[in-house]
Amino acid sequence: MLDAIRYLVDNGTKWRAMMADFPPWDRVYAFFRCWRGHGLVKEFHDRLRGRAREMAGRDPEPSAGVIDSQSIKADVFAGVDSRGFDGGKLINGRKRHVVVDTLGLLLGVMVTAADIGDRAAAHVLLAQVAAAHHWLALVWSSPSSNAATTCAASSYCPSGGSWSGSSPT
Predict the structure, then answer these.
(1) Nearest-CA neighbor of 130 among 62, 69, 70, 71?
(2) How many CB atoms lie within 10 A of CB 107?
């Protein structure tokens, strides 16, 4: 079942287009929904990230991260309520806000309409990441991001850390 889900995510196929080598799509989907409902998908991801960090000679829990966002054009079939216009990049669509550790492994992600500012999204996303990763003490943002001042003005700085406009070396 896990291999079937990984295949689906890796290849971007639809549930009903699952290869015949895997169990029927509706059974795989039922397992996925059950696992997601019980938080097991996140648990699998977190354990894999911890092991990858250990294999790289790092502590399983990150102490530093990087936040950034990317605007993406939305398909014409995407709901109008989930799209927005990013005036800085001239893109009508959605924006993904991502926090990764210094190895580039995912710590948190949030998708918004493209017109949501980086500062507002970072405020929410950082609160979620801080709740899950208590050792996180420092989060860098890109200099062009307005998110750099969010942490200083909020109570969501993980472990009393701070935002910095410079990138990690």
Answers:
(1) 62
(2) 22
